[in-house]
Fold this sequence. Notes:
The protein is an alpha/beta fold. The chain has a single domain, classed as 3-Layer(aba) Sandwich (Rossmann fold), CATH 3.40.50. 32% of the residues lie in helices and 11% in strands. The chain is built from 7 helices and 7 strands. It has a 7-stranded mixed β-sheet, with helices on one face. The longest helix is centred in the C-terminal third of the chain and has 25 residues. The radius of gyration is 18 Å and the shape is globular.
Amino acid sequence: xxxxxxxxxxxxxxxxxxxxxxxxxxxxxxxxxxxxxxxxxxxxxxxxxxxxxxxxxxxxxxxxxxxxxxxxxxxxxxxxxxxxxxxxxxxxxxxxxxxxxxxxxxxxxxxxxxxxxxxxxxxxxxxxxxxxxxxxxxxxxxxxxxxxxxxxxxxxxxxxxxxxxxxxxxxxxxxxxxxxxxxxxxxxxxxxxxxxxxxxxxxxxxxxxxxxxxxxxxxxxxxxxxxxxxxxxxxxxxxxxxxxxxxxxxxxxxxxxxxxxxxxxxxxxxxxxxxxxxxxxxxxxxxxxxxxxxxxxxxxxxx
Length: 303
């Protein structure tokens, strides 16, 4: 028997739709809002199995401003939730990444941009959660990094299946090439067997929600971009089959988008690294990664 979507999920959808529509196309990005200073330099980050948030993880990039929501409504807000998978508690899992790729700055920076630039109230901590956690239904938006390395237990497959069929939405980014796609697609077939991927047309309304997006843009990892600027090397990863960007989706039987995979692009690096170099910020965070993310969030919460 399917588990009903938590009532707060429906409220989150109304909050996000109202919050973004109030500002509409008046959204503009100024300069990157950090001073460019570096924080924690990366490496292993064991976090255990307790309930954790993005702010429990040392920053790899720059510090994200903190904010507060009205007293009494701290939890009645939109929360960026990240799916944790596999057994490793640090960066660098099998197959080109792990669940903690671009953590915590991608989660916190996108949350801050929503809080800063819209009337939407956003949780300042985010949430890191496994698909088997019974609280998953509280979060209508779920993001996964580096799904070319995604591993799910049977309980997690079952939890993700129920989540998607009952109103949840999963966004995936930062995986490259046919090898990682094929592995990820096989994992997802265990979640919902027989479901077919649909390549979105640029005529799809997701590209017109607030920002008018004319192309499926490729956001490179900042280290790859630096190498490109220095030597002219490619902006994509994993060889020639990482060159073309794909936006592939799963829809439920009523036409609701359940899953959106941004393949051959590292949009979460655009969120994570925006405060490090102004040129990267203006080219990829401001023009590509944030506009697409905001369009996706608004579409997901209103359809």
